Amino acid sequence: MSLPLFLAVREIWHNKGRFLLISMVVALITTLVLFIAALAEGLGNGNREYIENLSGELIAFQADVDLSASASRIGRSRLNEIRRIEGVADVGQVGFANATIVFDDGEDPLDVSLIGVEPGQPGDVSILRGKPLRGSRANEVVIDANVAARSEIQVGDTISIRTIQGASEEFFQLYVVGLSSGQAYFLRPSLIVPFQTWDKIRPQGVNERTDNGELISNIVAIKLINPDQTVQMGRLIAERVDNLEVADRKTAYEAAPGYSAQQSTLDTQRYFSFFIGILVLGGFFQIQTLQKVAQIGMLKAIGASNWRIGLSAMLQIILINTLGVAIGALGSLGLGATFPPAVPIEFSRDALTTAVIALLLIGPAGGLVSIFYLLRIEPLTALGLAQ
Questions:
Q1: What is the spatial distance between Cα 96 and Cα 191, in angstroms, rounded to a whole number?
Q2: Closest by alpha carbon to 27, among 387, 368, 359, 378?
Q3: Which of 33, 171, 219, 319 has the lowest tally of Cβ within 10 angstroms?
Q4: pLDDT tens string for the chain (387 positions)?
Q5: Phi, psi dihedrals of residue 153, rounded to the nearest 5°
Q6: Is the dihedral of CA 169, 135, 188, 61 positive or negative?
Q7: Could you write out the DSSP letters of every residue in 254-314?
Q8: CA-to-CA distance for 176 and 183, rounded, in angstroms?
Q9: In this structure, what DSSP letter does residue 188 have?
């Protein structure tokens, strides 16, 4: 092992500029791959964060809306029908709307998702700091971590919310009682308010209320007694309650408009970046091999075995590739830290680890052709002594 490593390191040191150049190419490919992965994670979280963290195993939508929360309408009277089904622990109405936080100090308004939940019921959020929502009609709000990151709003502040009521703008004052983890929905930071307060302040047209005054939500969050029975309970609820379609959380956020297409597009870009990396490294080391055929022939002529020469080349490839990946990964993390919170770039540990492992493998994969060529070199032919 010492001789192959010595040969690999000595050649790298002797041609520092050439190998540093290919390491920087690997670093750029690494940066591209990691930023695509971070963008996919950031955009994905921006669409699914609230649904993914929902305090319930199942979500009920109005039937025939393709699991679209914005198109779904479920009346409050349906909750009792769901609650009576054996195996259901609790249910809660959840509504979605858009709103804008306006600031008195001249700061730019912040567009947010306005989420209405029933305090203490499925759909409500956990609190990191402050207190949970109390009454269903209270003028209280829990801000998520994304709102806190994009503004100076803190627990104890009073914020002004602007929505469209009929044909005019209306402003509502809400007292911030708590801070939750990230609950982004449709790429917007979120405000979580009591459901009846949400129904009062949400954007709405003239005479939009139903004739009987029934509270209408977009979805119903369902908590089960046995969380392992999501499939069976989903089918049972859909059979027992008319005009409902039931899905688990993952199915629900993957059905969001554009979510799957967005993730597929970014994954395709990432895979092509890996493929480009394999071709670039393969081409570079193939040229390297062709330039040192005579030296390899000499090594074989004085007794160096094929496995030592092949191992030396593989170690060289691994060292150069690892250096490039390390530079690219550290540079990506440093550059990512400079982006403002509004940019949907998120370097999650799992996505970062997967991408780095894949990048470390593209070097050996790209160098296999050159190593195969090394093993086929004949000493006499390489030295020009063959008849």
A1: 10
A2: 359
A3: 171
A4: 577 777 778 877 887 888 888 889 889 999 999 999 899 889 988 889 999 999 999 999 999 999 999 999 999 989 999 999 999 999 999 999 999 999 988 789 999 999 999 999 999 999 999 999 988 889 999 999 999 999 999 999 999 999 998 878 999 999 999 999 999 998 899 999 999 999 999 998 766 655 467 899 999 999 999 999 999 999 999 999 999 999 999 999 998 888 888 889 988 988 888 888 888 888 887 777 777 777 777 777 776 677 777 787 888 888 888 999 999 999 999 988 888 888 888 888 888 888 889 888 888 888 787 777 777 776 656 556 544
A5: -70, 135
A6: negative
A7: HTSTTHHHHHHHHHHHHHHHHHHHHHHHHHHHHHHHHHTHHHHHHHHHTT--HHHHHHHHH
A8: 16
A9: B
Q: Return the number of other C-beta atoms located less than 10 Å from residue 122's C-beta.
A: 24
Instruction: For residue 80, give Cα distances in angstroms to 91, 93, 219, 238, 365.
Output: 9, 11, 14, 14, 59
- Please report, as a single letter, which amino acid is at residue 381: T
Strand 216-217 relative to strand 140-144, pairing: unpaired
Rounded-to-integer distance, Cα 161 and Cα 176, Å = 12
DSSP H helices, the chain, are 2-14, 16-52, 77-83, 145-150, 195-201, 230-240, 249-254, 259-291, 293-301, 306-336, 349-376, 379-382
98 by DSSP, 3-state: which? Answer: strand
For 39: left if phi > 0, alpha if psi spans -120 to 50, otherwise beta; the answer is alpha
Task: Please identify which residue in the block is written with the tokens 């983890």.
Answer: 181
Q: Which residues contact 322 (CB under 8 A, 6 or more apart)?
A: 360, 363
**């199942």: which residue's tokens?**
58
> By the 8 A CB rule, do 195 and 116 touch?
yes
CB atoms closer than 10 angstroms to residue 351: 18
What is the DSSP track for 317-368?
Answer: HHHHHHHHHHHHHHHHHHHHTTS-TTS-----HHHHHHHHHHHHHHHHHHHH
Q: Do the beta carbons of residue 89 and residue 225 sit within 8 Å? A: yes
What are the CA-CA distances from residue 207 to residues 72, 211, 214, 329 (Å)? 19, 9, 13, 55
